Amino acid sequence: RKMAHLLPPSNSTRNGPAEPSTKFHGREEFDYKGNSWMAPPSGLGTLKDDELEMDHHKCYVPKKCVHRFTGHNKGVHRIRLFPRTGHLLLSAGLDGKCKVWSVEQKQVMRTYIGHSAGVRDAQFNYDGSTFVSASFDRYLRLWKTETGQVLQTFTNHAVPYVVKFYPHDSNFFVVGCSNNKIVTYDATTAEITQEYNHHLAPVNAIVFVEDHGTKMITTSDDKKVLVWEWDIGVPVKYISDPTMQSMPVLTLHPSRQFFVGQSLDNTICVFQAQGRFSQQRKKKFSGHIVSGYACDIAFSPDGQFLVSGDGNGKLNVWDWKRTKMLQKFK
């Protein structure tokens, strides 16, 4: 059970944030052409406005594990792919460090050290030039990905559980906290510009959808799903049902028509991402054990396959259309 929100608010923030540092592990930060180490390898297809540029990019079910990245001293809480190209990985570790890895070179490129407790979540902005790390030490940090410089430090004396950038302006990001609130920060001034306070328990997941303007969908330990208009502190819709369980992870389908939630009754639930936001009760993915764990969900870029971890350390792949499990990896 989460204990973070029971701690007194000033417990760890009294001493101030940890001293930030960074270490570069690659061969050189710029190559002979002057390209940064972050530049994608040549010939890589990119997602333009989340539409695949390359026609031949058909996705297949993976057959075997091709590489294991090692380097964190404790568990890894989050992995994020670099926006649009996916040639870099950002990992948030419980050792208080964030690392960026090169998928092509299969090595760690830069380590970002700036938290005195484990990092709970990390998120790239929409061009990958900066990222935010949210830690159990109650601080959030905005980092420059290329140089490892800390641009800003944020705190509201609650533990940040999830962080998401606003899709239309990377100067704003929202944080779901252990004090049941969701807050919007201005990245340039470090001020809170809006509070959303309707959940009755710590907030676990946030996803943005487009439906007559940008809407934000949040879930919490109170087993509710709330839909909010951007920058309006009152929810426009409650999704609550006696049979629903808490959903610690939400992911948007690449078609942007649906979003899925990892429900703690060992299923993945599907909801419409527009209109009535109703649950698609006939479309359920099951066969994995996740109760008590917050296992992440991901889609293949063409939306054909759904992937999730589980509590036994297995990786599960389903067919999105038929909801049939295709593969399990240990």
What would you note in describing this structure?
The structure is a single chain. This protein folds into two domains: 13-30 and 68-197, Methylamine Dehydrogenase, Chain H (7 Propeller), CATH 2.130.10.10; 201-330, YVTN repeat-like/Quinoprotein amine dehydrogenase (Methylamine Dehydrogenase, Chain H). Helices cover 0% and strands 43% of the residues. The protein contains no helices and 27 strands.
Terminus-to-terminus distance: 26 Å
Number of continuous helical runs: 0
How helix-rich are the residues, as a percent range? under 10%
Task: Tell me the β content.
Answer: 35-45%
Number of domains: 2
Question: What is the CATH C-level name of the largest domain?
Answer: Mainly Beta
Q: Give the overall form.
A: globular
List its traits:
mRNA binding, Methylamine Dehydrogenase, Chain H, mainly beta, four-stranded antiparallel β-sheet, 330 residues
